[in-house]
Specification:
mainly alpha, 2 domains, 7 helices, SLC26A/SulP_dom
């Protein structure tokens, strides 16, 4: 069936969350709309990518407004969030930003002596994330 651009999926899921969609029915509705859009692909391809810029800007502003809720006074929790935002912007990739932020969270907690606060699942996840960054540097 092919794929959809990541920006399109992000816009759809963020718009659904902003509209108050919290159940699986919201995701199912979005999936049905994506499937119906396959029929109108030629029409959709006529829309320039620049037309989605306002929606992406609003989604970005909405995401940054969530930073107000982060306790920046708590060094071990606030700094990884800021690092996640910086890595996302520098790498131009949400996945890389989240991966970097999670690794940074583990490192900061361990350095601060709060390694017991790190869930075991995050320790397990650290292994493929380190591998991801190791291979990312080589390419």
């Amino acid at each position: 069936m092919g794929g959809i651009p990541a920006a399109t999926a992000l816009i759809e899921s963020s718009a659904a969350a902003e509209a108050g969609g919290k159940t699986g029915l919201t995701a199912l509705s979005a999936a049905v709309m994506f499937l119906l859009m396959l029929l109108f692909t030629p029409v959709a391809l006529m829309i320039p990518k620049e037309a989605t810029a306002p929606a992406l800007i609003l989604i970005g502003l909405n995401m940054f407004s969530g930073l107000r809720k982060v306790d920046l006074a708590n060094f071990t929790d606030g700094l990884p969030v800021l690092m996640m935002v910086m890595i996302t912007l520098i790498a131009n990739s949400f996945g890389t930003g989240i991966a970097g932020g999670l690794l940074f969270y583990i490192v900061i907690k361990a350095i601060a002596g709060k390694w017991r606060e790190i869930p075991i699942g995050l320790w397990v996840l650290a292994v493929p994330l380190v591998y991801y960054f190791a291979t990312l540097v080589r390419h």
